[in-house]
Amino acid sequence: MVVNMITGNGYGSKIEEDEYIRRHHKHEVKENQCSSSLVKHIRAPVHLVWSLIRRFDKPQNYKPFVSRCFVQGDPGIGSLREVNIKSGLPATTSTERLELLNDEEHIFAMRIVGGDHRLKNYSSIATVHPEIIEGQPGTMVIESYVVDVPEGNTKEETCYFVEAFIRCNLNSLCDVSEHLASQDMAVLS
Questions:
Q1: I need a labelling partner for 46 at 20 to 30 A (CA). Which of 4, 7, 105, 180 fits?
Q2: CA 67 to CA 18: how far, in whole Å?
Q3: Residue 25's CB: how many other CB atoms inside 10 A?
Q4: pLDDT per residue over 49-88, tens digit each?
């Protein structure tokens, strides 16, 4: 497994990151698959960041490529969501299943089970961990994935493509979380 550090702020201990990845980001990677873990440090408290990630029914709250999401029934483990992807991308829909939602340990896992894209056997795990950034409550987010390498592509090309989407989502999560945190701070002032 490759670990790509998208720290932006340079906070957090590499030892802590490695331990969280070892403990929570286990993927069975087959020969025709690629996998990686990405890390983002956010200047916002864990409860705020987790409140965005845990919403299986509202990925569009921070994922910029999602235009609409529909979940039939309550968004519990095993539920499916139909996600509409914004135009200009090589897909229009994705069907995803919630695999794990642990509010105590802040673990979210999902699997793509359908859609008009090339991400076959894709699954991801996101975890959220408290940290202190410049004396303020912050959050370390780790997202890992495994996916089949499509025919005609290399593992490197596939990882590059998937990581570009995850990076964009993590950067957007950071922007939204930090904006909400600054609004909270303004209200308290």
A1: 4
A2: 34
A3: 23
A4: 999 999 999 999 999 999 999 998 888 999 999 999 987 7
Give the 3-state secondary structure of residue 6: coil
Tell me phi and psi for residue 173, to 5 degrees: -60, -40
Q: What is the model's pTM?
A: 0.89
Helices 155-188 and 46-53 pack at an angle, to 10 degrees, of 130
Residue 107, strand partner residues: 102, 127
The whole-angstrom separation of Cα 9 and Cα 138 is: 11
Cα distance between residue 130 and residue 114, in whole Å: 34
Is 4 in contact with 104 (CB distance < 8 Å)? no
3-state SS, residue 46: helix
- The Cα-based distances of 179 to 6, 7, 43, 45, 150 in angstroms read 19, 18, 10, 12, 37
Q: In whole angstroms, give the CA distance from residue 172 to residue 30.
A: 30
Q: How far is CA 17 from CA 30, 55, 65, in A?
A: 24, 24, 27
Residue 110 to residue 138: CA distance in whole angstroms? 24
